[in-house]
Amino acid sequence: MSETVKIIILAIVQGLTEFLPISSSGHITIFYHLLNLEEPILSLQVYLHLGTSLAVLLFLYRELKEVLTKNSILPILKMVIIGSIPAGMVGIFFKDFLETIFHLEGLLPLFFLINSIILISSYFIQEKNIQMVNIKPIKALLIGIFQALAILPGISRSGSTISGGLLLGLKRKEALLFSLLLSIVAIWGGSLLEIMTEPPIFLKPSIIAGVIISFVTGYFSLWLIKKALDNNYFYLFGIYTLFLSVFLWIKALFI
């Protein structure tokens, strides 16, 4: 199997799992080992993230325009910055540790199990009516801590931040919007950090193809998670990662 085909497979996996609350990093780690890729996993994943971040901007164009028309951008920007601090600190000070964690496939079942608990717990949270523009700094910071936890492979960023937002009283649509705004900062911040510390690989044709594919599949996953939230099916993704966790544990013990 050629390197280009392998990266295309990873791009499809990345796009489909980036915004669905099943952990793109966890799935990328699984496929990274299956495909025996030679590229540094964090470096490759960062560039695939660029495609999915562009999908966010396109998908949320109308929603962002509506929110920013009715409200000042400054309060929202302030809360997004505050919410981005925990993940930023973890990414800066624990980069080498995270690189090691991404290569420890044996920890994935545990992280997927934690993800399942977070998602299934969201089913029992009654929706409240706090809008993103009215969120308090302490709540933005707490949601940011949820996002920092999701740096671990197997724990979903969207699943953690949306569940955290719902727990802290945000409406479903507002929790999704705030989660995606945080993801934009995290993706571009992580990309900048990686470019500063790793030789750039984004000019390779296979990487460019991967970015385009992750953009298309990422847009589809955004549409799907919005439908799941609207119909209160969000928790079902937790059942999927629970089965995945059990399968990986069985695989590690008996296969």
UniProtKB/TrEMBL annotation:
Q: Which residues form a coiled coil?
A: none
The scientific name of the source species is Psychracetigena formicireducens
How does the record say this protein sits in the membrane?
Multi-pass membrane protein
Q: Name one GO cellular component term.
A: plasma membrane
| Entry protein name | Undecaprenyl-diphosphatase
Which Pfam families does the protein's record reference? Answer: BacA
Q: What Enzyme Commission number(s) appear in the record?
A: 3.6.1.27
UniProt entry keywords in alphabetical sequence: Antibiotic resistance, Cell membrane, Cell shape, Cell wall biogenesis/degradation, Hydrolase, Membrane, Peptidoglycan synthesis, Transmembrane, Transmembrane helix
A molecular function (GO) held by this record is:
undecaprenyl-diphosphatase activity
What exactly does this protein do?
Catalyzes the dephosphorylation of undecaprenyl diphosphate (UPP). Confers resistance to bacitracin.
Its transmembrane ranges are 7-35, 41-61, 73-94, 106-125, 175-195, 207-226, 232-254
The record's section on InterPro entries has:
UppP
Catalytic activity of the protein: di-trans,octa-cis-undecaprenyl diphosphate + H2O = di-trans,octa-cis-undecaprenyl phosphate + phosphate + H(+)
Miscellaneous comment as given in the Swiss-Prot or TrEMBL entry: Bacitracin is thought to be involved in the inhibition of peptidoglycan synthesis by sequestering undecaprenyl diphosphate, thereby reducing the pool of lipid carrier available.
* Location of this chain's protein in the cell: Cell membrane
- Record-stated family: Belongs to the UppP family.
